[in-house]
Design brief:
The chain contains eight helices and eleven strands. It is α+β, with helices and mostly antiparallel strands. It binds zinc ion (ZN).
C-alpha cells in the first residue's frame, strides 16, 4: 500500500508533503516539447490515450506555455499546506521534520504511530487516534471563533477518511481522492482529466478562482470565509450545549416516559411525568 494523501479536517485540502501538481506540470512540459500528443480514447476510460497523434496548434501551445509560467509563480503560495498539527485526544503536536509520513494516512516518530483516518483508528493498540490539520486552519478557528479543535467534538461528524460532509461545493468536487487533483481544481475542470484531453478539446488553460481555496486562510479572505462558514455552526452548537442545563439539552417532552439519555453533566436522566402531568428529566 502506498503513501496516500492526508486531508486537513478543517478545510478539506490535502496536508501531506506530496504535491501532485509538480508531476502534472512535468508531464505537460514533455507533451509541449514533443509538439504533438496522443488523442484520448473516446471510450469510458477518460484518461486512456489512443495511438492516433495530433499536432499541437501554435496558439494553443503559447497559451499552455503561459499557464506553466503563471503556475510557477503561484507555487510559493501553497507552502502553508506543509505546516501541520496532529491533534490527539489530549495533545496538540507540531509536525516537524522528524515526523515520517507513513502508509495508510499516518505519521510516525520515535516508534509512535499517529493514525489520522477514522477508518484506521481502531486498527491496533499501537496507533494513536489522531486528526491532522494545517496550522493556519487551526489558528484561524482559534483567532476568529476562539475555538480549539478537539477530536471528541467532531468525531461523529467525520467519515472514514476523517472528513466532514461538506467543505463548500467547489472543494467537495475534488476532495477525498487518494491523490488530490490540484491541477484540475486550479483549472476548474473535472477530476480524472489529462492534458491530452484538454488539448484535444481545444481548451485554453487559465488559473481559475478555485485557487483561492488553496491559499492560506490567514491571508486569503475568500478561503477564510469558506472555512468559517463550515465551522461557525459546529462551534456555536458546542458552546450552547456546554452552557446548557445539567439534564439533556433536548426537551423531555420529545420523548416517551422511561426514555433514558445522558445529561450535559454526564449523569443519566430518565423521562418521568410530574404531578402536573408534564414530562421532565429526572436524574437516575
Ligand atoms: Zn486546512
Amino acid at each position: 500500500m502506498g503513501v496516500r494523501d492526508i486531508y486537513c479536517v478543517i478545510c478539506g485540502i490535502t496536508t501531506s508533503r506530496i504535491h501532485h501538481y509538480n508531476n502534472d506540470i512535468k508531464e505537460l512540459k514533455k507533451i509541449l516539447k514533443r509538439g504533438k500528443f496522443n488523442v484520448p480514447s473516446s471510450g469510458k476510460y477518460k484518461t486512456r490515450l489512443g495511438k492516433k497523434e495530433k499536432i499541437i496548434d501554435d496558439k494553443l501551445k503559447e497559451n499552455y506555455e503561459k499557464f506553466i509560467k503563471d503556475f510557477d509563480k503561484l507555487k510559493n503560495n501553497f507552502k502553508w499546506c506543509d505546516d501541520l498539527y496532529i491533534i490527539t485526544e489530549n495533545k496538540l503536536i507540531n509536525v516537524d521534520k522528524s515526523f515520517h509520513l507513513e502508509d495508510m494516512a499516518g505519521f510516525s516518530k520515535n516508534r509512535k504511530y499517529y493514525t489520522t483516518e477514522k477508518d484506521f483508528w481502531n486498527e491496533d493498540e499501537y496507533s494513536i487516534k489522531s486528526l491532522c490539520c494545517h496550522k493556519s486552519c487551526y489558528k484561524l478557528l482559534l483567532k476568529k471563533l476562539n475555538y480549539k479543535l478537539k477530536i471528541e467534538d467532531i468525531e461523529n461528524k467525520l467519515d472514514e477518511m476523517s472528513l466532514l460532509k461538506s467543505y463548500g461545493s467547489v472543494v467537495n468536487k475534488y476532495k477525498g481522492e487518494q491523490d488530490f487533483p490540484w491541477t484540475w481544481m486550479i483549472l476548474n475542470v473535472s477530476s480524472f482529466n489529462s492534458f491530452e484531453r484538454l488539448l484535444n478539446d481545444n481548451i485554453k488553460l487559465k488559473i481559475s478562482k478555485n485557487v483561492n481555496y488553496l491559499m492560506d486562510p490567514l491571508k486569503n479572505k475568500i478561503n477564510e470565509e469558506r472555512i468559517l462558514k463550515i465551522w461557525k455552526p459546529i462551534v456555536n452548537k458546542k458552546k450552547i450545549l456546554k452552557k446548557d442545563r445539567p439534564s439533556p439539552s433536548e426537551s423531555a417532552t420529545l420523548y416517551d416516559v422511561g426514555k433514558i439519555k445522558k445529561g450535559n453533566d454526564g449523569n443519566m436522566y430518565e423521562v418521568v411525568i410530574n404531578k402536573n402531568k408534564v414530562k421532565r428529566w429526572k436524574k437516575k
